[in-house]
Amino acid sequence: MKYAVALFIGRFQPFHNGHLYSLKKSLELAEKVIVVIAKTEEARTENNPWNYVERENMVRAVIGEMGWGTRVERIVGLPDNQSDKVWLKDTVLKAGIKGREGVVVVSNNEWTLRVFREAGYAVVESGLFNRDELEGVEIRALMRANNEDWKLRVPKVVAREIDMSVVKKGNTFGE
Question: Which of 49, 61, 79, 120 has the most CB atoms around its CB within 10 Å?
Fold first, then answer.
């Protein structure tokens, strides 16, 4: 492993098999991973139907199912900020990162990668895995259409988490 810690940053609306691919890449790159759940201030909208706690539960369920609990150091939530510098500072502070040495940022978001790259961090674009099927917009559209094919695009444990959320809370995926 090349790095001590990887910051894996995403919205996870929902956590899907593409995210699982990127999390695996993060674990290949670093001894420990810190998962940063972005855009925590928004929920129950078409593009962001789940709140922070629900997304954290999805991520924790995957980590538990995969047996990665000792390698994922923590999960933190982070709201958006219009200032790149403030957002970067908040991310580093919340993640508990003390410096750039031994840290890699893993994301497929060009803006995120640019902000960290410009601040001197190592960045890795994990690559989009099966992007035609594994895009949050498409998965959420299938859910709203009551098309059960969405369950093929997320880890099974996430499908169970979402099903429980819908039954318990009446989440209508942003409608």
Answer: 49
For helices 110-118 and 84-95, angle between their N-to-C axes, nearest 10 degrees: 80
* Pure H helices in 106-155: 110-118, 136-144
Provide CB contacts within 8 A for 8, sequence distance 6+.
22, 23, 26, 33, 34, 35, 36, 106, 107
Residue 77, φ and ψ in degrees, nearest 5 = -105, 150
Residue identified by tokens 């500072």 is 89
- In terms of Cα–Cα distance, which of 139, 89, 105 is closest to 35? 105
**Does the pTM exceed 0.85?**
yes
- Give the model confidence (pLDDT) of 23-82 as tens digits: 999 999 999 999 999 999 999 999 999 999 999 999 999 999 999 999 999 999 999 999
135-151 confidence digits (pLDDT tens): 788 999 999 999 999 99
Q: Under 8 Å CB-to-CB from 40, ≥6 apart: which residues?
A: 51, 52, 77, 78, 79
Angle between the 52-66 and 156-169 helix axes, to the nearest 10 degrees? 150
How many other CB atoms are found less than 10 A from the CB of residue 47? 12
- Under the phi-then-psi rule, with left for phi > 0, alpha for psi from -120 to 50, and beta for the rest, what region is 120? left
